């Protein structure tokens, strides 16, 4: 997978503190949104190619991967992802047809539904996690300027400090994440 052409002018660069109309918190939020958008855009195709699921379905899988094997109630998944419950029901049904999640009734609650990853999903996520992590890392590195990358490195120490286009080794060396 090659990195798309990115140019410094395409990056959302946060102006210096106090130089614009917005306070620092809102400028930081805009940088975060731009970085998130870049990651989502890059991940969409990789997720479809490697997992054969939509980006929203991938988010459900990631959320469930970080939970105990018993999973979460559908209402919790909807709340944590900020998704309407009706849309989530459709996405869970798609994941269930693919054999990636199970749905079970919650004991003592007729309307409650628990969702959990299957062993197939855990195996698939394990096989693709290095590629997906590299995709995220590259998208973040490509979408931010030097100052934003430095700030993000405080949160993600493994984030590349050079744009991925300058790092041919990123395409051949998956991360150990």
General description of the model:
- The protein has 177 residues and is mainly α.
- It has a single domain (12-162), classed as Winged helix-like DNA-binding domain superfamily/Winged helix DNA-binding domain (Arc Repressor Mutant, subunit A, Orthogonal Bundle).
- 54% of the residues lie in helices and 10% in strands.
- It has six helices and three strands; from the N terminus they run ααβααββαα.
- It has helices at 24-51, 55-65, 74-81, 85-97, 119-143, 146-155, and strands at 72-73, 101-106, 109-117.
- It has a three-stranded antiparallel sheet with strand order 1-3-2.
- The chain is globular and about 55 Å long.
- The model is unreliable at 1-9, 12-18 and 162-177 (pLDDT under 50).
Find the CATH superfamily: Winged helix-like DNA-binding domain superfamily/Winged helix DNA-binding domain
Roughly how much helix do the residues carry, as a percent range? 40-55%
How many domains? The number is 1
Query: Can you summarize the main beta sheet?
Result: 3 strands, antiparallel
Apparent shape: globular
How large is the radius of gyration? 19 Å
CATH fold name: Arc Repressor Mutant, subunit A
Uncertain parts: 1-9, 12-18, 162-177
Number of strands: 3
Strand order of the largest sheet: 1-3-2
């Amino acid at each position: 997978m090659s990195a798309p052409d990115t140019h410094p002018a395409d990056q959302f660069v946060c102006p210096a503190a106090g130089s614009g109309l917005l306070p620092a918190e809102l400028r930081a939020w805009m940088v975060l949104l731009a970085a998130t958008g870049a990651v989502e855009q890059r991940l969409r195709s990789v997720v479809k190619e490697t997992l054969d699921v939509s980006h929203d379905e991938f988010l459900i899988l990631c959320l469930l991967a970080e939970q105990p094997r018993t999973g979460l109630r559908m209402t919790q998944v909807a709340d944590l992802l900020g998704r309407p419950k009706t849309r989530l029901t459709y996405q869970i049904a798609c994941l269930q047809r693919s054999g990636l999640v199970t749905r079970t009734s919650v004991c003592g609650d007729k309307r409650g539904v628990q969702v959990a990853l299957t062993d197939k999903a855990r195996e698939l996520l394990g096989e693709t996690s290095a590629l997906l992590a590299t995709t995220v890392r590259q998208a973040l590195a490509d979408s931010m300027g030097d100052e934003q990358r430095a700030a993000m490195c405080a949160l993600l120490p493994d984030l590349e400090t050079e744009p991925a286009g300058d790092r041919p080794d990123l395409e051949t060396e998956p991360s150990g994440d």
